[in-house]
Amino acid sequence: MKAWPDVAEILLEEGTVQNRVAEMGRRISQDYKGRKPLFVCVLRGAALFCSDLIRHVDLPLRLDFIAVSSYGASTTSSGEVRIIKDLESGIEGGDVILVEDIVDTGLTLSYLVQNLQNREPASLKVCTLLSKPDRRLVDVKVDYVGFDIPDEFVVGYGLDFNQRFRNLPYIGVYNSKPEDG
Ligand code: 5GP
Asked: Under CATH, which architecture does the 14-152 domain have?
């Protein structure tokens, strides 16, 4: 597929993403056989990934959503995380799989993991489509990773820049410098 003008390069083609998501779903189905996990999708970025992922999970799962404050119009982490929409499900004693779009510095994820752990689930695992290991500032355990990617600002397949590009079926590198907004 042709890249948009603001997309410098396609990093992960649609088919590559879809194949990997299907693989991750099958893996989770095996790992959680006989259990009924709750998938917690982190809005908004992970919405597309999570909805594709769960269609490859052959388990009596449940789905809930949580939203945290994001970077806004900036492409760098503020380090400040705040829950702006909480879960509707109680998770105490349950098996929880937290589904993220991307782990960058790890600050958002470590906040979320701590917050959910305080609610005393039986288990909590983390599944992310993308990870930028070179950018990590805090050590946070990620159980399922779709792709390790280099330190580039990426858009597409749920990931935005200023709320745009979420509908691209592939993952691309954003063209402009962050301050171009
Ligand atoms: P962290 O707290 O790990 O630094 O950042 C996690 C959040 O930052 C992600 O959930 C995502 O919203 C945003 N983010 C980090 N890197 C990128 C990127 O390359 N592209 C986009 N669109 N968002 C990113």
From this structure: 3-Layer(aba) Sandwich (3.40)
Tell me the C-alpha distance between 102 and 95, whole Å: 21
Q: Per residue in 25-58, pLDDT tens?
A: 999 999 999 999 999 999 999 999 999 999 999 9
Tokens of 84: 């702006």
Ligand 1 pocket residue status of 147, Cβ below 6 Å: no
Tokens at residue 33, please? 């056989």
What spacing in Å lies between the alpha carbon of 99 and ligand 1's midpoint? 13
Can you spell out the DSSP letters for 41-55? Answer: EEETTTHHHHHHHHT
- Closest atom of ligand 1 to 45 CA is 12
